[in-house]
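Listing S7. Sequence submitted for prediction.
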Amino acid sequence: MQPANAFLSTGGFDETRLLAPSQAIALYLATVPAPEPRVERVGLDAADGRVLAADILADADYPRAARSAMDGFALAGGGRAGRFRLAGEVRMGAPFAGMVAPDSAVQIPTGGVLPPGTDAVVPLEEARVEGDAVHLPAVVAGDCVTPQGSDMRAGAVALRAGRRIGAPELGVLATLGITAVPVYARPRIAVLSSGDEIVAPDRTPASEQIRDSNRYAIAASLRAMGAEPIHGPTVSDEPGALEAALRAALATCDGAMLSGGSSVGERDLTPGAVAALGPPGVVVHGLRIKPGKPTVLGASGSKPVIGLPGNPVSALIVLEAIVAPIVARLAGAAAPAAPVEATLRSSLRGRSGWTNYVPVALEDEGGHAVAQPLALHSSLVSLPARAAGYAIVGEDDAPLEAGTRVTVRRFLSGGLR
């Protein structure tokens, strides 16, 4: 694909040749080779915000045995109501001794492992205790029970490589006993400022100078994207200075972000400096956006070299709206995802008078997002990691029928699902 340079030698841009953001990003990703990722292993606490570098498989069924979903009484679910002998109590973390006879029941807490001879649970509020016996209604096998393997099956992929690790993923990793987590190394991205008018924040600027605020805002945004910003120098407007600074930065970093020097004035040297670094050079110069039209998207080999506008608002908007997918690819991740407008595949019926947060999975059908509500079982560790996010059924909302449009809010901590 050919570079999209809409800058005219006479100065200014040919606006008929400017690319839309999606076109510019697609052109960059198709032109610049993907870097070879580096993999390292980190502890669970250090894995937060990192990108998973390998598929994670379940080492066993989870839960490993059938468990009670309620506080109540475990018994054989044969459909018989009546009086049952109390044969003991299940204690958390300890096995139950012996077999429960068909005419007996055992008290059990939420999450307790069902004792041998039982396969159903009657909730506490539906039971009536009399001395050493309990009166229970009829139940069938599986009532109020979380089956073995209902969360994760042994050998199944629990988490796929390429997703950013957040709270849901950390819960799964800890449950599986994975304490050395394979992640992609954070890309090191140099942050440079350009312009003779720029001074450090601890200096008092003259009337013709400004303090360098952009580099710190850019660095913070890069950290949020999973990169490690490395502060480079403030580069003067002298010929050759910018090229030399970029070469030095790329010798130790995986890419470079330059604030300023990408506009249309005769001393704006970014495009020429990027081109001098070697192919592919400048891929895009000028975007059909406001603010941020003079943005430069370039690279030296697989290392991105991005020329951001000098205006603080423009620099941050371009970085987060345009450059984020480029940084995400360096980090081995998909681009950050915004809230999604989707169509419900099946109805959502929350508890009347309550606000209900319903986990949903997302599927693409012909370019349209479809949300599939997931059965809410609070004890399932993998449920948040299987969900794209959640839809909301408000206190006064009628049941949301299949075909209704809903907004899916993604988990604040976690990756693209």
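Caption to Listing S7: primary sequence and predicted structure tokens for the chain studied. The chain has a mean pLDDT of 89. The chain is about 20% helix and 30% strand.
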